[in-house]
């Protein structure tokens, strides 16, 4: 064959696949198309530079870019096109289109590059046309504060405006807010958070507000960030990093006591210097701390120091919290008020707390008494500037009734407890006073909480706990230690899995009347009698498996013992030595039976054995011989037989009981008692009739009742019967509908599982739909769990409104 034909033959074969003139041009005009591509790319890069110059213009400093997301997306697209053009030119330049023994392969390579160059040119042209308009606006000023605190508001606004100007800058920053405890760091951080929320996050994708504390671990902070980002609870650093790597974020870290590893949190390293917005997203980390060395170790690029108020600002804040009418009604009171205010040193927390404490003082004698009390408060025993404010803050404590003073100390010092656990603690320590039933006691407890919150000593948290300011917590410890004179009166320690408590710590127990420890593996061997010890709480010690013999014999006057959430399997025989014990909590342990020695605890009033997975029947004659028992908690696993229950009812003034029910006779007997927790497990039960005595019930479990087809009520509606019910668990029953739960006023958790006959969870007869729909549905529901309902078709046969 002729050499020309030898070359053209495969070329012609190749050309059969090209069907248009444009396709042919991709092969024979590849270089020209690449040249056109380079030209439009140069034009796009010039446009990009114009955009960047506008963004970097100094006149826009401190202003908010209106269309930040649009600009960011456009710059990102430009970067992607730049990379694609570079790769295409590189592919052509490497010789992929030079003949290499196969003319056919060379044609396909040219065709591919020419076609991609043409398409890329069109995309770049369109991207250039879509150049975003750069529009800046001034950051809206923070909302004004009430006139009565206007001067104080101006102080906050000054720092707030500084913080906002830092947020508006295009750099990655760590911003430290620093100052002594109680000076207003958290208040400023919360206002920054609110300003961001009020202004569409100022263009940031995420604003994360994370609360730390003195003992917060990195893992806890990471879990909180994962929660804010709706990630799995066990999310690790990599998960958070992947969720945030393409986002602009603000991380607000409040109250850190040691340097935080931001990389370990999953936050992209904010120290790196990367001016290219297409390759690095903007990160702002703002933290608050009272510790100067923490501030320095966080390597903050910008610092906002929050200082105490000037006299005119302090006076305005004090008057705002005190009774202004009384202060202005008498010249002498006004004069004393200014002296009291001056003693606060301009510390906002002291001014607020002191003002609230004085708000009900109306006579000159009252004010003079307070002034003398502060002057004689003994500040010389305190060390450091921070401590000198504690006697002033104590005034708010002194104004409380004695029983509420003790409630405050427990609430502040045990701030990690849930509100319900804290109320239980108050009740069982006798701080609530006399009560007929738990509902009455809880009502009193809520009244006490309101008093403490109004005094500025406590505040409720979103997680169901109560908290106090760090400085208030320090004041509580100072008061609990007899104003610093007996530092071992209250021992509060967290050991975090420590195998053995240090010897010096053990020796301190003999001087303590309250010991609260957590995270231990071994209880200490006590060499000396602890005659003053009244309260012992060993909490959250999941590795603690044994209480050695003789341990309880060293504390004969103990009245309160909490061993909950440990791994202990039995109580030692010398539990009988605790003859003064009034409260015993072994809930959520591995104990499988109650020892016979408990009968010696003749003063026992509260027996808490909840969630003992291996506990079954309680021995006959045990509870009925404890004649002072008022609260019995065996829920959901433990139970007693009918005769034992009748005897307990006869001899004891039972105010609350919770248990498992395995016979209908026991169920009927419990209907005559203030039952707060009930686990019904009856194999042959077909209909459960509620007779109107469920007003005390908080937790109800109905399970393994395979014949149960109906729940009915006599002369009372479900919302009236179950008005206190918080949690309902139903499983392995033959019930077909649960419409009766729709209007339960307190129901927060509904869990339905393994109910084979359920087709519509909330089925209502047509004639009743209008009546049902008129009333609010699920007024308190927070959690709904539906597990393995094989016949379930729909939630309801009408519109159900969830909160």
From TrEMBL:
<keyword id="KW-0677">Repeat</keyword>
<dbReference type="InterPro" id="IPR027417">
    <property type="entry name" value="P-loop_NTPase"/>
</dbReference>
<dbReference type="GO" id="GO:0043531">
    <property type="term" value="F:ADP binding"/>
</dbReference>
<dbReference type="GO" id="GO:0005524">
    <property type="term" value="F:ATP binding"/>
</dbReference>
<comment type="similarity">
    <text>Belongs to the disease resistance NB-LRR family.</text>
</comment>
<dbReference type="GO" id="GO:0006952">
    <property type="term" value="P:defense response"/>
</dbReference>
<dbReference type="InterPro" id="IPR050905">
    <property type="entry name" value="Plant_NBS-LRR"/>
</dbReference>
<dbReference type="InterPro" id="IPR055414">
    <property type="entry name" value="LRR_R13L4/SHOC2-like"/>
</dbReference>
<protein>
    <submittedName>
        <fullName>Probable disease resistance protein At1g61190 isoform X2</fullName>
    </submittedName>
</protein>
<feature type="domain" description="AAA+ ATPase">
    <location>
        <begin position="171"/>
        <end position="311"/>
    </location>
</feature>
<dbReference type="InterPro" id="IPR002182">
    <property type="entry name" value="NB-ARC"/>
</dbReference>
<dbReference type="Pfam" id="PF00931">
    <property type="entry name" value="NB-ARC"/>
</dbReference>
<feature type="coiled-coil region">
    <location>
        <begin position="34"/>
        <end position="91"/>
    </location>
</feature>
<dbReference type="InterPro" id="IPR042197">
    <property type="entry name" value="Apaf_helical"/>
</dbReference>
<keyword id="KW-0611">Plant defense</keyword>
<keyword id="KW-0067">ATP-binding</keyword>
<keyword id="KW-0547">Nucleotide-binding</keyword>
<dbReference type="InterPro" id="IPR003593">
    <property type="entry name" value="AAA+_ATPase"/>
</dbReference>
<dbReference type="Pfam" id="PF23598">
    <property type="entry name" value="LRR_14"/>
</dbReference>
<dbReference type="InterPro" id="IPR032675">
    <property type="entry name" value="LRR_dom_sf"/>
</dbReference>
<keyword id="KW-0175">Coiled coil</keyword>
């Amino acid at each position: 064959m002729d050499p020309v034909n030898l070359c053209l033959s495969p070329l012609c074969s190749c050309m059969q696949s090209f069907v248009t003139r444009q396709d042919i041009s991709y092969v024979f005009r590849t270089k020209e198309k690449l040249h056109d591509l380079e030209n439009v790319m140069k034009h796009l890069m010039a446009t990009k530079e114009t955009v960047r110059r506008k963004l970097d213009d100094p006149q826009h400093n401190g202003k908010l870019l209106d269309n930040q997301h649009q600009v960011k997306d456009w710059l990102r697209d430009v970067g992607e096109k730049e990379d694609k053009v570079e790769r295409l030119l590189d592919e052509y330049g490497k010789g992929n289109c030079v003949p290499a023994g196969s003319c056919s392969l060379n044609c396909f390579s040219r065709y591919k590059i020419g076609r991609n160059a043409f398409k890329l040119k069109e995309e770049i042209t369109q991207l250039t046309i879509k150049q975003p308009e750069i529009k800046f606006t001034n950051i809206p000023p923070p909302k004004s504060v009430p006139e009565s605190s206007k001067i104080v508001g101006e102080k906050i606004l000054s720092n707030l405006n500084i913080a906002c100007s830092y947020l508006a800058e295009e750099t990655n920053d760590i911003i430290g807010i620093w100052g002594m405890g109680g000076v207003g760091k958290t208040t400023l951080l919360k206002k920054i958070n609110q300003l961001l929320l009020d202004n569409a996050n100022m263009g940031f994708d995420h604003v994360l507000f994370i609360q730390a504390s003195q003992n917060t671990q990195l893992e806890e902070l990471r879990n909180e960030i994962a929660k804010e980002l709706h990630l799995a609870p066990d999310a690790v650093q990599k998960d958070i990093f992947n969720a945030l790597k393409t986002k602009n974020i603000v991380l607000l870290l409040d109250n850190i006591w040691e340097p935080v590893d931001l990389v370990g949190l999953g936050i992209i390293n904010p120290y790196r210097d990367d001016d290219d917005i297409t390759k690095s997203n903007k990160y702002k980390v703002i933290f608050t701390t009272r510790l100067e060395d923490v501030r320095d170790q966080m390597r903050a690029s910008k610092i906002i120091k929050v200082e105490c108020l000037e006299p005119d600002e302090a006076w305005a804040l004090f008057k705002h919290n005190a009774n202004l009418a009384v202060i202005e009604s008498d010249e002498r009171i006004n004069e004393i008020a200014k002296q009291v205010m001056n003693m606060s040193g301009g510390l906002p927390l002291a001014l607020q707390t002191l003002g609230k404490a004085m708000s009900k003082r109306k006579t000159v004698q009252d004010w003079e008494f307070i002034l003398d009390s502060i002057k004689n408060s003994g500040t010389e025993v305190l060390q450091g500037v921070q401590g000198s404010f504690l006697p002033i803050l104590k005034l708010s404590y002194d104004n409380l009734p004695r029983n509420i003073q003790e409630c405050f100390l427990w609430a502040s010092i045990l701030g990690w407890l849930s509100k319900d656990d804290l109320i239980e603690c108050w009740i069982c320590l006798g701080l609530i006073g006399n009560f007929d039933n738990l509902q009455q006691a809880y009502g009193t407890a809520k009244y006490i909480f309101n008093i403490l919150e109004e005094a500025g000593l406590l505040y409720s948290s979103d997680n169901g706990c109560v908290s106090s300011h760090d400085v208030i917590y320090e004041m509580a410890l100072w008061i609990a230690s007899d104003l610093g004179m007996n530092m071992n009166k209250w021992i509060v320690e967290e050991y975090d899995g420590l195998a053995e408590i240090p010897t010096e710590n053990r020796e301190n127990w003999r001087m303590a009347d309250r010991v609260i420890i957590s995270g231990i593996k071994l209880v200490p061997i006590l060499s000396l009698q602890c005659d003053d010890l009244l309260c012992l709480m060993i909490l959250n010690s999941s590795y603690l498996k044994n209480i050695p013999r003789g341990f309880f014999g060293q504390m004969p006057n103990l009245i309160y013992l909490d061993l909950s959430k440990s791994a202990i399997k039995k109580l030692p025989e010398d539990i009988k030595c605790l003859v003064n014990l009034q409260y015993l909590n072994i809930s959520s342990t591995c104990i499988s039976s109650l020892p016979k020695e408990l009968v010696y605890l003749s003063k026992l009033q509260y027996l808490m054995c909840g969630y003992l997975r291996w506990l079954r029947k309680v021995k006959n004659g045990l509870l009925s011989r404890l004649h002072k028992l008022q609260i019995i908690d065996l829920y959901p696993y433990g139970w007693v037989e009918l005769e034992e229950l009748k005897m307990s009812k006869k001899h004891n003034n039972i105010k609350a009981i919770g248990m498992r029910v395995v016979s209908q006779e026991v169920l009927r007997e419990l209907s005559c008692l203030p039952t707060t927790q009930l686990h019904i497990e009856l194999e042959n039960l077909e209909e459960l009739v509620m007779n109107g005595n469920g007003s005390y019930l908080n937790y109800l479990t109905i399970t393994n009742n395979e014949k149960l087809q109906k729940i009915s009520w006599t002369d009372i509606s479900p919302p009236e019967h179950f008005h206190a019910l918080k949690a309902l668990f139903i499983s392995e029953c033959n019930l077909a509908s649960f419409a009766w739960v729709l209007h339960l006023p307190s129901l927060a958790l509904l869990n339905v599982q393994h109910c084979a006959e359920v087709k519509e969870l909330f089925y209502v007869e047509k004639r009743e739909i209008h009546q049902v729909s008129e009333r609010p549905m699920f007024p308190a529901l927070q959690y709904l769990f539906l597990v393995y309902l094989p016949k379930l078709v729909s939630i309801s046969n009408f519109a159900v409104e969830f909160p």
